[in-house]
Write a structure and sequence with these properties.
- By secondary structure, the protein is α/β, with parallel strands linked by helices.
- The longest helix has 18 residues.
- The relative contact order is 0.12.
- It is built from 15 helices and 13 strands.
């Protein structure tokens, strides 16, 4: 079986997603099958995949704009004799759904990594997903969801699976650095207590709640800071406007630290003092799982997609929109620190081997 793994993923760092695909592909190869990767753009982590012996196609290099997406996909299927396409983050989604017959007998599985949006009308979103499941069934498309609620919305699909993400402790780094080295690189002072938020989508990720809660915490302890990864070391105009309009806080406050994306996220989680998931919507958080793996205390908004983290004894939940309760949870987490916990139990439960076995079972089923 020849498998095409296509992902609209062009983040500067490989993260748990690429590491998971690498681990999966090794197992696929051990079973005597072939894997081809397709990404929209070339990034440094592509070298890691190629050094593992896998073929990688980057569309910005291999194909010019004169070819349509459908032509590109058809040429890949023909060139590599593809039997199954596994799509992530919507790459080739339109061509697959609306030109299904032109792709021949190739099997297709779409991997849904997302929760519903922050749009208030959740019922409308749910039933849009129900209608989408009708289209997928007609087209012979299967779906894997990382969130149970989202999976249940694909009513009319027979071939659908709920598979939570898996954690791999491998990254595209030669050696993970120490807490002290990482704090030095991030310019974190010895006496500062840093709470980290991953904030690529400001509203969805609850950056406004986190900022206001940290400001309130500083009334008790002025060494507490908020570190943000996902918007760069210099916030853009939209970020500045969001912070000031939603919180009334000056984005230039010294207690707000803007960090560049980091490949060695395990070192970052050891370097910080607590991790906050202030999301209003979340499917399954890689960031939470990575933080837990390093026995870092976590502050978590009380939403469906992160309920699983309540199994972790160093997790501190708060009502999603409550700044006051969020600030109390932050103070409790910092007081707890890296006290004894069941972090290894959580890592074992959501380990990469379980995830790989589930995905391979799905491949066999379709």
């Amino acid at each position: 079986m020849n498998i095409l793994i296509a992902a609209d993923y062009s983040a500067p760092q490989s993260g748990n997603f690429i590491a998971s695909l690498v681990a999966l592909s090794r197992m696929i190869r051990e079973r005597g099958n072939m894997v081809i990767f397709v990404f929209p753009k070339w990034k440094n982590w592509v070298l890691w995949i190629e050094n593992e012996g896998f073929q990688v196609v980057c569309l910005d290099i291999e194909y010019n704009e004169s070819k349509s997406e459908l032509q590109v996909l058809q040429s890949l299927i023909q060139k590599y004799e593809i039997d199954l396409i596994h799509c992530h983050f919507g790459l080739f989604h339109h061509s697959i759904v609306f030109n299904r017959k032109e792709l021949g007998r190739v099997k297709v599985v779409l991997h849904d990594h997302m929760d519903f949006s922050v749009e208030p009308n959740i019922v409308r979103q749910y039933f849009s997903s129900v209608l989408r499941s009708v289209l997928y069934r007609i087209k012979g498309i299967s779906v894997v969801s990382v969130m149970k609620r989202k999976n249940s919305s694909y009513w009319f699909l027979k071939k659908k699976w709920y598979v939570p993400n898996g954690l791999t402790l491998e990254r595209n780094v030669e050696k993970s650095i120490s807490r002290e080295e990482c704090r030095k690189q991030l310019a974190i002072k010895p006496d500062e207590k840093v709470v980290l938020l991953l904030g690529w989508d400001l509203k969805r990720k609850g950056l406004d709640i986190a900022l206001q809660a940290i400001k309130k915490c500083r009334e008790t302890n002025a060494t507490i800071c908020l570190g943000i990864i996902g918007i760069g070391s210099e916030p853009g105009e939209l970020t500045k406007q969001f912070i000031e309009s939603e919180t009334g806080i000056d984005y230039q406050e010294k207690w707000i630290k803007y960090f560049e994306s980091q490949e060695d996220m395990f070192a970052v989680h050891r370097a910080i003092d607590a991790y906050i998931s202030a999301s209003r919507r979340e499917a399954f958080s890689y960031g939470l799982l990575e933080a837990i793996s390093q026995n870092t205390p976590v502050i978590v908004s009380d939403i469906a997609g992160t309920k699983w983290a309540s199994e972790y004894t160093n997790s501190f939940f708060y009502p999603t929109e409550s700044v006051d309760e969020c600030s109390k949870a932050i103070l409790k987490a910092l007081e707890c620190g890296r006290c004894k916990s069941n972090s290894q139990e959580i890592v074992d439960k959501y380990g990469i081997d379980r995830w790989i076995n589930e995905i391979i079972k799905i491949y066999d089923a379709i």
